[in-house]
Amino acid sequence: MGFQQRTPTQPPHSPESICLNRLDPICDGQPLVPSIAQSTTFQRSGVGSDPEHQYSRVSNPSVALLESTLGKLEDAPAGVCFGTGLAAETALFLSLLQSGDHVVCGRGVYGGTTRLFQQLLSPYGIECTFVDSTDTDEVRRAVQPNTRLIFVETPANPTLDLTDIRACAEIAKDAGVKLAVDNTFLTPVLQRPLDHGADISVYSTTKFIDGHSVALGGALVSKDQGLLDRIRFIRKCTGAIQSPFNAWLTLNGIKTLPLRLKAQSKSAAELSSWLLDHDQIERVRHPSLATGHDALIAQRQHLGEHGAVVSFSIKGGYDAACRFVSSLRRCTLVEHVGSVETLITHPASMTHADVPREQRIDVGISDGLLRLSVGLEPAEELITDIRQALAAIRATSKSQGGVPVHA
Ligand SMILES: *Cc1c(COP(=O)(O)O)cnc(C)c1O
C-alpha cells in the first residue's frame, strides 16, 4: 500500500489553527502528535554530509517545530527558543550589547529582567537607565549616544500600565537602536509587537504559551534575519537551548492558547469590573478598565481582549492582604502567572520582598497590592471565592476591634 501524501491545506499561522503545528506533509500512519526528537545527536549518511540537525545544543527538530510555530504567529521567520525566558533575554542582551553600551529599560518590567541589568550586566560595563515607559517623553530623554536597546514590557508587571509600542518604535528608529518588547502576558494571540514597529518580541513561554505549568521556556521572535542568526550563534556558544521535551510539552500547550487566553481574559475583565464596585478594594488594574490615552493604546495594541492578569489593592494594607490570601479557597498562592488555574501573588511579600518599601511603593506596588492570574474556572466561582475571603477579613478586623477596613 503506497503512502497517501498531501500538504496541509490551511496555513498554520492564524491563531485559530495553531493546532495544525506540523511540518511534515500529511502521511498515512503518521502519529497525530509529532514525536519528540529526544536525541542529543543526529546521524550523517557519510563524510561531508550536512544534515539540518546535528547536535541538540545547536538545533533540534522538536525545538525547531515550536520555533516555526511561534514565528508564524507573528508573520515572522522561525523564532529562537531557550531553556527559560531569562535565558532568552540574556542571549538577546549578549547579541546586541558590549561593554560601554547603554540600555533604556521600562521600570515596569519583570523583576528578573531588572536583576539581569543591575546585578549581572552592569559589572561588565553595560549601563541601564530605568524609566517610566508609559511616558514616552521620558523614554526619548533617556536615550544617549551609546544607547543600543530600548526594552519595555506592556502591560507592565504587576501594575498593568500600558506602554505605547508604536511611540517607542519611533524613538528607537530615530536613534538607530533596537526596540524589544516583553510580550509574555498577552502572547502573540492578543498583541503582536512587531506589527507596531518593535524589532524583537520576547517571551517566557513558561507562562501562558505553555499554559499548564509543566515546561520552562523562552523565545525571541524577530523579522531581522541577521539578528536571529546572531542570537542562534549566542545560543550555541552559551548552551541555552530549550530541551526537546519542554518544546514538545509547549507545542501541546500552545494548541489551546487562543481559546484559553480569550476565555481567561474575558473572566479577568468581568472580575475587574466586579472588584471596582467593592468597598474593601481600591485601585483595580486591568487594561479593560483603561480610560483616556490608555484606552486608545489598548484598543490599538490589543487584539480584542486584554489579558488574564488583574491587580488590585486590599484596604487595610499588608496584614489585610495576607489574611485575604489565606482565606481564599479557589485561588492558589504562588509566584507565577499564566496557568489554567487561578493564581494569586502578593508582590510586597513575594516577588518584591527584596525591594526597599519606599522604592516599591514608588513604582506602584503598595503593601495591599495583589496580582491575580485568572484561570479557566467560571468567573462566578472566582467572584464567590473572593467575596467570602473579603467577608472573612472584614469579620476578623471587626472582632479584633481593628481599624475599619474602609478607613
Ligand atoms: C516569568 C517571566 C520572565 C522570565 O521567564 P522564565 O521562563 O521564568 O525565565 C520574563 N518576563 C516576564 C514578563 C515573565 O513573567
The main β sheet shows up as: 7 strands, mixed
Low-confidence spans: 1-12, 402-407
Main β-sheet, spatial strand arrangement: 3-9-8-7-6-4-5
Task: Look at the helices and sheets and give the structural class.
Answer: alpha/beta
Q: What order do the helices and strands follow? A: EEHEHEHEHEHEHEEHHHEHEHEEHEH
Taking all Cα atoms into account, the compactness measure Rg is 22 Å
Proportion of β residues?
5-15%
Shape, per Cα inertia axes: globular
CATH top level label of the largest domain: Alpha Beta
Bound molecule kinds, no repeats: pyridoxal-5'-phosphate
What's the average pLDDT? 92
CATH-defined architecture of the largest domain? 3-Layer(aba) Sandwich
* Total count of strands: 14
Portion of residues within helices:
25-40%
By CATH, the topology of the largest domain is Aspartate Aminotransferase, domain 2
Question: Number of helical runs?
Answer: 13
The CATH superfamily of the largest domain bears the name: Type I PLP-dependent aspartate aminotransferase-like (Major domain)
